[in-house]
Amino acid sequence: MVSGETGKRNISVRLNQQQLELIDRTIARGLAATREDLMRLALREYAANREGKVDE
Amino acid sequence: MSEAAAMMPEAAGAKRRLVDERILEPGTGKAFELRQGQILRIEQAVGNQCVDFNCFNLHDYKEFMHCGRTRTVHGFNPTEGDFLWSAPPRENAMLYILKDTVKRNDVLFPRCSAFLYESAYGFDVHTNCHDIQAEAQREYGLTPDDVHDSFNFFMCTEVSMDGRATITRQDTRQGDHVDLLAMMDVLAIPNVCGADIMRTSNFALKPVRIRIFEATEDDLAAVPSVPRMKSQRTPAQFRNARIKTTRELSADPDYVPDFANTPIVETEIGLELSEAEWATFEKLARRDLYGSDDGAAFRDILFSWWEERFLNAASGAPSTSGT
Questions:
Q1: What is the pLDDT of residue A55?
Q2: Taking CB atoms and an 8 Å limit, are A13 and B286 in contact across chains?
Q3: Phi/psi at B247 (nearest 5 deg)?
Q4: For A39, which of B283, B296, B302 is closest by C-beta distance?
Q5: Do A36 and B304 count as a contact with CB atoms less than 8 A apart?
Q6: A12 with B267: Cβ contact below 8 A
Q7: What is the dihedral of CA B240, B245, B250, B252, to 10 degrees?
Q8: Alpha-carbon distance values, B179 to B115, B164, B214 (Å)
Q9: Taking CB atoms and an 8 Å limit, are A18 and B265 in contact across chains?
Q10: Which of B129, B206, B211, B212 has the alpha carbon at shortest distance from B174?
């Protein structure tokens, strides 16, 4: 979905309670302040690890 | 003797106290009580002989060595430095491979059986690992149904491109051996593989030497630590710890399902992506798997990232160093 602000997109990620537990424990390690921040970090790092690589 | 064996002729074994020694003749096997801290040596008396192996907790036969768990942790050819693990929900390190002079073992193939020799070769009776194991285990009151998937020492196997496991010949010599250090009290049952018309033991059956030693301090110090987790359960934690004594299966009318973490409930997490983040996401999204489902595609990225960043075990395998 494209939001009112130019170029921004909203997506909705469905996570179950076990997946959220892992995400929250990962946040507790100090990697990010919120679930959303952690998800953005995951996107950045996953992309950085794939520079020039084709994913399997 | 292989190069490795020749370089270390009984160097460690010389200091160990020998507890038992015997020869397993072709067509036979034997159950050995192996106490924690003792070493079972399985040794080529002649060479080129596969040895099938079962193992139970000596104090609770319902805990047994599990090839599936062992191969997910250590791969298809576990060797020196690897453990033999028990089945879930125990998942304990039962034995540690302290020494392996050949480093070719198998946890892909099941034991050979009478059915195999009858169906494929037309034998009414033929030496086979299942029946040899069952006969050896009978000394301890176990039944043929208690024989489990075997760890196959010195067995050379490969996985072909079409996904099938195949057996190749071995090249072991007199004196080649594996040393298994007991991490707990176990009943260890090696048997001389009965396959004389396959490549497993190069088309002949030969005797195998078995020795039991008391481990030295150096032996014990060589064992890496393994995690102790609360998920490694004991019968005291089972909802039903009673061993079933009837063969017939019938439903318990008082049974009430009690599955962990149920119901599984999903929560929507909204995420706003900038134009640049969206472009990155679009590059990574597995549209081939998830189509237009952005959330599913992002979830895949999220947990794939987590695996790369934090997982310290093979995919789908437990970590032997803890989280």
A1: 55
A2: no
A3: -80, -30
A4: B302
A5: no
A6: no
A7: -30
A8: 32, 30, 11
A9: no
A10: B206
Helix axes B275-284, A35-48, angle to 10 degrees: 60
Spatial neighbors of B91 by CB under 8 A, at least 6 apart, are: B69, B85, B231, B232, B318
- Would you say B35 and B185 are in contact if contact means Cβ atoms under 8 Å apart? yes
Find, in chain B, the residue whose alpha carbon is nearest to that of A50: B284
Q: Length of chain B in residues, anyone? A: 323
Strand-pairing partners, residue A15, are: B267
Of A9, A13, A26, the CB nearest to B278: A9
Q: Cβ–Cβ of A22/B273 closer than 8 Å?
A: no
Of B277, B294, B310, the CB nearest to A40: B277
The domain segmentation of chain A, as residue ranges, is 1-56
Residue B56 predicted with pLDDT over 70: yes
DSSP letter for each residue of B134-172: HHHHGGGT--GGG--PPEEET-EEEE-TTS-EEEE----
Place of tokens 């924690």: B36
In whole angstroms, give the CA distance from residue B226 to residue B208: 31
3-state secondary structure of B86: strand
**Encoded amino acid at B22, one letter:** R
pLDDT digits over B70-104, tens only? 999 999 999 999 999 999 999 999 999 999 999 99
CA distance B271 to B300: 15
Pairing between β-strand B156-159 and β-strand B165-168 as defined by DSSP bridges:
antiparallel
pLDDT at B315: 76
Among candidates A8, A14, A43 on the partner chain, residue whose Cβ is nearest the Cβ of B281: A43
pLDDT in tens, B31-52: 999 999 999 999 999 999 999 9
Mean pLDDT computed over B154-182: 96
Q: Which two tokens stand for residue B263?
A: 């119901």
pLDDT tens digits for range B265-299: 999 999 999 999 999 999 999 999 999 999 999 99
Closest CA to B132 of B36, B26, B204: B26
Asked if A17 and B275 come within 8 Å (Cβ–Cβ), the reply is no
